[in-house]
Amino acid sequence: MPATPSTSAHTRFPTRTVAVVLAGGSGQRIGLATPKQLLKIAGKSILEHTLDIFERSEAVDEVIVMMNPGFVTDAETIVQKAGLSKVSRVLPGGTSRNATTQLALDALAHYSSANTNVLFHDAVRPMLSQRVIDDCVAALETYEAVDVAIPSSDTIIEVNDDDIITDVPTRSRLRRGQTPQAFRMSTIREAYAKAWNDPGFEATDDCTVVLRYAPDVPIHVVAGEEQNMKVTQPVDIFIADKLFQLATSATPRYSEQDYTRELAGKTVVVFGGSYGIGAGVADLAEKHGARVFRYSRSATRTNVANPTEVAQALEQAHSATGRIDYVVNTAGVLRIGRLDQTSNAEIEETLRVNYLAPVNIARAAFPYLAQTGGQLLLYTSSSYTRGRGEYSLYSSTKAATVNLTQALADEWSEDGVGINCINPERTQTPMRTKAFGEEPAGSLLSADKVARTSIDVLLSDLTGHVIDVRREDLSGVSNDAAASQKESAK
Questions:
Q1: C-alpha distances in angstroms, 357 versus 153, 218, 227, 306, 332?
Q2: Is position 107 within any domain?
Q3: Looking at residue 14, what DSSP letter applies?
Q4: 295-350 per-position pLDDT tens digit
């Protein structure tokens, strides 16, 4: 007979939802000197990414962090600098997962058990979606305990102490558990009270505690998501970093009114601002009230590969307005051909314009952007993901630009300066036309669309991201699906 929602005395509608972020890991198990939750991905610590998810959730009223006791101050610093207003306390965790949960419940003792939801979430799952949070809280209107899980794509086997298979469970009934795990606080409190009276009590998660010590309470399962991965092993850090790079759906979209409100009175410097994407960014920013300074070799004879000329351009913009809020570099060189047939002059020009120029611009722009909490925006190409024949210089310099973006996001995070990288699909620009000639109408992304996404990113608080821009709208597609749709080189 299928389980039905509980009809126990705990039926009063909960009025407050508290997220408890479990950040007690040390990292020593995988050989790290720093807890995994403090490692940086896409310019922010994993912990900050996770806390920001709950900060933005309309379903969550308060957040408590249960931190590794030796790093409580580090977590408090992250909370303070990020302005995470929902985080009420950072508390030291216990010696086990269960002990940490109990400490969190003790910290919430001043709330009514019958009128409080509590969500327990692993700090090292920094890609939790708002949809999953909303579904968990909604499910608590009917159920007293909720888990999050996804189907298992692998066959699961059961073995004995000698590693001999003893059973192969039916895969269609198996799920891989994730977090958050959500409860009405009265239910999880009572389950733990019974558990601590059991001399053999041991459980790896909180739903197990309810399952064993409150067996009459049905545990509802909410559908999780593949990208809600747990950063456990060193390779997971790499995977998570790539998923953040491909976070197309994370890019906010602003209205025309937003543009005017955010850009009016700001100073925008665009290198490569005479044609194509750069001109589109400059035009859009100028239309909405920004002071825009365009520099290019064709219009102002500015060589972005020359650090002196870059510094002079930025100084000119700053002298005129007293500030620089955004710096954009769309300048680039696209030469297709075999490396052994490329001249020394062509090699040097490609390296200088495509890589040394972003380096020079970043160095010169940083002091100005640090004053305004501004952002640098660079551009890569879908060819950065894999070197391709006859694209060796172009692909490698674009890959270097991505790595530069990630590294500087880390370096600049303490200074409040953002840096991101736009990765447009094949785009109709004079540079592309020069390399490939005229191409079929409708087969290329418009420079205006890339420009609009560029402004959206500049106005966001993103940093360290590589943002894809495509002809089709992937805003509803998960990160892993977006990654699988990567196109070939421009």
A1: 45, 60, 35, 7, 9
A2: yes
A3: P
A4: 998 889 999 999 999 999 999 999 999 999 999 999 988 887 889 898 999 999 99
Give the integer Cα–Cα distance in Å for 294 and 292.
6
Residues 186, 287 share a domain: no
- Tens digit of each residue's pLDDT (9 = 90 or more) over 185-219: 999 999 999 999 999 998 999 999 999 999 999 99
Share of the chain above pLDDT 70, in %: 86
DSSP result, 372-434: HT-EEEEE--GGGGS--TT-HHHHHHHHHHHHHHHHHHHHHGGGT-EEEEEEESSB--HHHHH
Reported as a single tens digit per residue, the pLDDT across 154-163 is 889 999 999 9
Same domain, 286 and 146: no
Q: Which residues pair with 41 in a beta bridge?
A: 44
Residue 167, C-beta contacts closer than 8 angstroms, at least 6 positions apart? 157, 158
Q: In 10 A of CB 150, how many CB atoms?
A: 15
**3-state SS track over 242-300:** HHHHCCHHHCCCCCHHHHHHHHCCCEEEEECCCCHHHHHHHHHHHHCCCEEEEECCCCC
pLDDT single digits (tens) 396-407: 999 999 999 989
Determine, yes or no, domain membership for 490.
no
State which amino acid sits at residue 290. A
Global pTM exceeds 0.85: no
How far, in Å, CA of 326 to CA of 250, rounded?
20
Mean residue pLDDT of the chain comes to: 86
108 and 185 Cβ atoms separated by less than 8 Å: yes
Residues 56, 154: one domain? yes
Please give the residue range of the domain that contains residue 201: 16-230
The answer to whether 380 and 421 are in contact (CB under 8 A) is yes
The DSSP call for residue 176 is E
* CA angle centred on 25, ends 111 and 95, rounded to 5°: 65
Give CA–CA dist 18/61, Å, rounded.
6
Q: For position 358, which CATH number holds?
A: 3.40.50.720
CATH number, domain with residue 88: 3.90.550.10
Q: 164: Cβ–Cβ under 8 A, 6 or more apart, which residues? A: none
Provide DSSP, 107-170: HTTTS-GGGEEEEEEETT-TT--HHHHHHHHHHTTT-SEEEEEEE-SS---EE-TTS-EEE---
Q: Is the peptide bond before 5 cis (omega within 30 degrees of 0)?
A: no
Helix axes 72-82, 46-55, angle to 10 degrees: 50
| DSSP letter string, 19-51 | EEEEE---SGGGT-SS-GGGSEETTEEHHHHHH
Q: How many domains does the chain have?
A: 2
Alpha-carbon Rg for the chain in angstroms: 26
